[in-house]
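Hello forum,

I keep getting stuck at the same step: I have a sequence, I want structure tokens, and every attempt I make locally crashes halfway through. Rather than fight my setup again tonight, could one of you with a working pipeline run this one for me? It's a single chain of 535 residues.
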Amino acid sequence: MNRNSDFIQTRGDSSSSEEDGRQGAFADDDSVVSSNVTNDEAQTLTRGGLDMVESGSNENKKAGIMPRNGKEWCIVIVALMFIVIAAAGTGIGLGFYFMNKGSNNNNSSAGGSSPTTKDFNDNDDLNSDGFEQETYNGTDDNMNSTTSLPTDFAGSVVYHMVAQDISELASFEGIADNGSSSSPSPQQRARDWLVFSDMLPVNLADEQDEQMQSINGTNGTDPTDDLVNYSNNLSSIYLDVNTPAYRVAQRFAVAVFYFATKGDEWDAGMQWLQPGLNECDYPGIRCEEVTIPSISLADALKNPDYLPRHSDGTVDTTTERMIVEINLPESNLSGKLPSELMTFPFLKRLGLWSNQIEGQIPGNIGRLQNLESLLLDDNNFTGDIAAGIGSLGKLKMLSLGFNPNMGGQIPFGIGNLYDLEALLLPNMSLRGNLPSSMQNLEKLKNLELQSNDLRGGLPEWLGFLTNLEKLNLSGNGFNGEIPEGLSKLINLRELELQDNDLGTIPCSALEKVAILSANCQSIDGTSCDCCTLCV
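Reply #2:
Ran it on my machine without issues. Output:
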């Protein structure tokens, strides 16, 4: 407005001055021009005034808002185009923002998705609503230092399992064991089961409500409470963020194990994953009352690097039934063993022999620090013997035999199992020499290594294993003379050496052996006058 006003005023002043000047230049009336000024002087002054007016008029034209030529029109048009494009982009962006916000709100209100953080986003089930803006201060490589803490149960389960190295973050990203992204992974299915299906039955929900009312000092006669319970079918989620973190991890790992080994095809699977049924009551599981830290799942998320160990006596504790044995032999298990199964802190026995489990033994098996018996024989395992087995300091029985596709060398770490009493590795694809560390297995009573591809001479240190009662080395490639050190095996009752390339059997050193078998029938066979069985 000011610029236009100035323009109009300038144009008005210019017209007036020009008219006055022209009158002065051509006037014949002496009254118009002062008698004191000559005609030449007047004309000079008038022409100077006209020049000044014309100069001022040109400047005023330049100060106007209308372009004077095609170039200025092009500049104006381009500027207008930029303004229109910017306005259109802003409008479209705002439109998409409000559309997405409305879609997320609809999903949340429908109950079809579970809140979680950006790092744990699952396109099928989870969104990013409902989180406190607290930051994760842990050091896990898979966790972002600015990840928001979840406040819902689904997000809390995922967050805790990844932070405590129970599950990998990738296992929650829609990748199934077979590599397909179209079917959910065992970890996803376990999480969804905990959140959406694992509900307390009506009678147990009533008992829980009565207990809570008793604790809170209420009699439960509020009609509003009755209406809420009735509308919810008198059921509630079995676990939540206030449950001890150890207990949540245990139930989650059990569910992952069920889905990973195709539990719907088990012979004993009908009673597993019953909503509201304690996992300790599932067939094949035995539990004991154990004292654990009472820290809840919600509290554990806040300091994932400082989750107290189950043996930590400096924190508040509670008593829970925790799994100590899993026994499901000959139960038609298949699929692969999930790494989650190796995180039970109190597990003493894992017996899964005579199934169709495939794949490798999880590398984190060394976390089962209380394990005493590992019985995985007669399955379809592949790969080498997991080196982590050498970390199971309390192990007394190790049976991996009859897995013909499992091979490699016997791990040197086997010699760290000082309490081992039975090492059963027959009918595998083992190769190489016996590791010298095995001489540390002084409590060993039963050593079965038959039907492998083990080579070399029989070591003298076999005589150090004085508690041996059974030694089966048949069906390998051992050669050379039998060491005199075997005479020290005063408890040996059964010795099988057939199908090797060994020399003469020292009968005088093996007088107490009740069963002694060797290749002593053929001409080129082992010389053995004291053998009870010649093959």
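The chain is about 30% helix and 15% strand. If your local run keeps crashing, start a new thread with the error log.
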